[in-house]
Amino acid sequence: MSIATCRVDTMDEQDKFALLTQVIEEYERKPSNLIQVLHYAQSIFGFVGADVQRVIAQKMDLPLAKITGVLTFYSFFSTAPRGRHIISVCLGTACFIRGGQPILDHLKEILGIDVGETTEDQRFSLEIRRCIGACGMGPSLIIDEQVFKRLNVSGIEQILDEFE
Amino acid sequence: MNSNRGEDMYQTGIESVRSKKDLETIQAEFIQYGKKFPWRALVCSGASCMSSNCQGVKDALESALEKYELQSAVDVVVTGCMGACSTGPTLIIEPEDVFYCGLQPKDMDELVRIHFLEKTICREKTFFNLNTGEYIPYLKDVPFFKGQEKIVLQNCGRIDFRSVEEYIANDGYLALHKALTQMSRNQVIQEISDAKLRGRGGGGFPTGLKWKLASKNESDDKYVICNANEGDPGAFMDRSLLEGDPHGIIEGMAIGGYAIGANRGVVYVKAEYSKAIERTEEAIRRAREINLLGESIFGTDFSFDIEIRIGAGAFICGEETALIASVEGERGEPKLKPPYPSDAGLFNKPTVINNVETIGNVAVIILKGAAWYSAFGTEESTGTKVFALAGNINNSGLVEVPMGTSLREILFDMGGGIPEGKKFKAALPGGPCGGCVTEEHLDVPMDFESLPELGATTGSGELICMDEETCMVICATIGSGELICMDEETCMVDVARYFMEIAQEESCGKCIPCRVGTRRMLEILERIAKGQGKEGDIELLVELGNVIKDSAFCGLGQTAPNPVLSTIELFRDEYEEHIHDHCCRAGICPDLSGGPCENVESGAKPSDKEL
Predict the structure, then answer these.
(1) Which of B353, B392, B509, B579 has the fewest Cβ atoms within 10 angstroms?
(2) B163-177 burial, b for 16+ CB within 10 Å, e for fewer?
(3) Contact, B411 vs B214, CB < 8 A?
């Protein structure tokens, strides 16, 4: 089974839940596969909300508290919808030393949101990453899959304009 | 990334590799295949080069080759990280070993014409030495590569990571064959012990001993786990190794499995490392296909298979017991030891957990022997260490050097020193768990023994360099190998605050000293950085730090205060200036006045500093 071949964006809620059930069955409902199931759930729904958590709990025969407990432990998972574009500012040590913090502060200011939040128009979510591996080119940030490097504060607006 | 090798890339017809002869056949066939091409063009597709459009460079290279009808003369090979990350995208042309860097798609037409048709070197596209003002065409002459000793990274950046045939052509899987057919389990363990291989993830625990403990336990199931939850913020050697030489890790894990009597392996890798996951997955699939993983490997009664487990963004899961909990689908909280994983690990079965780089050393030790291996490095710290060199440094990237190489050689010879002629302030080997090394200790050998004497470790291999503008409020272990260099514009209070923020964010919350203690320390540091520091804050930080070190449950909490304690020890005057004079000499802390602290009145606002 490959999620990559499913057009998740064109599926309706019912199909999404059917796919989730299929994933859980592929993983044999084993509790040890919970984190892998959550990864798929996040790819399918974009985030793992309360309704999805309930379905996973039911299908895997685990307490809801267990699902929520594991889910919220890991920073990779989100329990709320995220924006159309995810801005991840690299704050690995190298980017930090080279001025990543002012970049983040500037983004917070122009977007009016804090780290982990989404703009009201659902356009952007703001995140921090600890090292994206482009240490020689810092400070850097990633929007969706695209990497922007050797940034300075004044060029940020121009970059955002590329994303609708 | 696709390559022109696509369909006509050499793939062996052997369906199941059963013997040494099969390996040798593949090796011979691959060499034969290579002879068809007078040149090989290696395009780096490490994370840093990918972010600088190496794909575009490769496409342009291929179009240019087509234009000049050279497709059959040049084999274009996509490789893992070559290491020289700040000069990306990079390209090596064999057999001359000419190193081209800083390439753009538009350069490729000219480069192809000059190099392959006119058969001279396109000098302006080779490495430019800032210190001498000269271009250096040959790889062996580039200072960044001189003095490096590539053992773990021998294939990284030199072979196509997707080709098991090319891995085999470079003596791949010969070590596994040797272990399975010519050595007993104990002999394998003995060889690793004799080589004095020690954990490269930061702990430095003897690998042979770890294996021995697990091998002695009788159990139906045992596990080998490869820890690729590389957490230090600035370390990328494990990622590069998995991306650039996944078969090396598979082979190392299989040898480990044979040694301890395990049939199952798990690679636990960070979710953020999507390329590493993809490439490792593909390598596992290919190894299974030709029976280098699976049942009866090389016709012996040894069976071994590997699965990938994807982490979900928790630094703590680099700790063994927390990692095990996470593989089991639980919250990644550490557990009390004993029982040690070698007695009761994954699903309560004997388990060995090794870091990626440690596993990367295994095959070569078995193939070439402990004596060969221990000739590198120092008496007690043998072999090499890979460092991720970053921060205020000219040539950042991955370097692999013999253990015991001095920090000065790494930072100034390979790293090319501090940019813009600024002054070196401190280096931070070992990332967030480590301590600082300053100018006076630059000649200290980088190994497991010498650094802890300075209150530093190698960590995992993150090596951050700081210049005079770095605000140091950080600390030194060999740790993981993250090596960050800082110049005089780095504020040490700010750096300490930064690491405490990470520790606080990543604290799993299980024990109070770490959960609450790091929060309180962070609050004090934030206060100091804002110019609201109080008399006695430094003493309070030291007291809190020592209590957390003594009482935290696991390694994360026990090392979290190190950056603060180390910077207080080495840069106490900077803390005092922040508190008493409301001044940040590096000009980093925005609420304080910057510049030379005696000129506080001039009121230069550091936040205007140009980036």
Answers:
(1) B509
(2) bbbbbbbbbbbbbbb
(3) no
Hey, are the CB atoms on A93 and B390 less than 8 Å from each other?
yes
B482-534 pLDDT, tens per residue?
677 788 888 989 989 998 998 999 999 999 999 999 999 999 999 999 999 99
Whole-number pLDDT of residue B515: 96
- The amino acid at residue B405 is T
What the block records as the tokens of B358 is 């440690």
Same domain, A105 and A127: yes
d(CA B287, CA B161): 13
Extract the tokens encoding A9: 């964006």
Give the span between the Cα atoms of B431 and B499, in whole angstroms: 9
User: Can you give the CATH number for the domain in which B90 is found?
Assistant: 3.40.30.10
A65 shares its domain with A100: no
Q: Which residues of B touch A96 (CB under 8 A)?
A: 233, 495, 498
Q: How many CB atoms lie within 10 A of CB B143?
A: 18
In eight-state DSSP terms, residue B580 is I
Distance from C-alpha of B9 to C-alpha of A150, rounded to nearest angstrom:
36
Residues of A in contact with B611 (CB under 8 A): 99, 102-103, 139, 151-153
Predicted confidence at residue B462, as pLDDT, reads 64
Residue-by-residue DSSP string for B405-462: -BHHIIIIIIS---GGGPPEEEE-TTGGGS--EEGGGTTSB-STTHHHHTT--BEEEE
Q: Give the closest-approach CA distance of A144 to chain B in angstroms.
A: 12
Are B67 and B124 part of one and the same domain? yes
Separation in Å, CA of B317 to nearest CA in chain A: 10
Rg, Å, chain B Cα set: 25
What CATH number has the domain bearing residue A141? 3.40.30.10
Helix (H) or strand (E) holding B398: strand B397-402
* A147 Cβ under 8 Å from any chain B Cβ: yes
Predicted pLDDT of residue A2: 46
Whether B608 contacts chain A with CB within 8 A: no
pLDDT per residue over A70-97, tens digit each?
999 999 999 999 999 999 998 888 888 8
- The nearest CA of chain A is from the CA of B445 a distance in Å of 23
For residue B95, whether the previous peptide bond is cis, meaning omega lies within 30 degrees of 0, is yes
Instruction: Provide, as residue numbers in chain B, all residues whose Cβ is less than 8 Å from the Cβ of A144.
Output: none
- Residues of chain B numbered 277-316 and touching chain A (CB < 8 Å): 309-315
Helices (H) and strands (E) in chain B, counts: 21, 16
Give the residue from B39, B158, B149 showing the smallest Cα distance to B94: B39
B486 and chain A: CB distance < 8 Å anywhere?
Answer: yes
Q: What is the 3-class SS of B88-116, one letter each residue?
A: CCCEEEECCCEEECCCCHHHHHHHHHHHH
How much is the pLDDT for B436?
78
Q: What total number of domains does chain B contain?
A: 3
Q: Which residues pair with A89 in a beta bridge?
A: A128, A141
Q: Coil, strand or helix: which one is B128? A: strand
Name the amino acid, one letter, at B514.
C
Which residues between 29 and 88 in chain B have a beta carbon less than 8 angstroms from any beta carbon of chain A?
46-48, 50-52, 85-88
Spatial CB neighbours of B573, under 8 Å, sequence gap ≥ 6: none
**Residue B191: strand pairing partners:** none
User: CB-CB: which of B240, B312, B482 is closest to A74?
Assistant: B312
| Cis ω before B334 (30° cut-off from 0) | no
Please give the Cα distance from A111 to B146 (Å, whole number): 46
Both B218 and B335 in one domain: the answer is yes
Query: Within this chain, do residues A58 and A104 fall inside the same structural domain, yes or no?
Result: no
d(CA A40, CA B172): 34
Positions of chain B with pLDDT lower than 70, given as ranges = 1-8, 430-434, 454-482, 595-611
Of residues B188, B87, B182, B191, the one with CA closest to residue B135: B87
Residue B468: domain span: 384-567
Task: Give the number of other CB atoms < 10 A from CB of residue B343.
Answer: 17
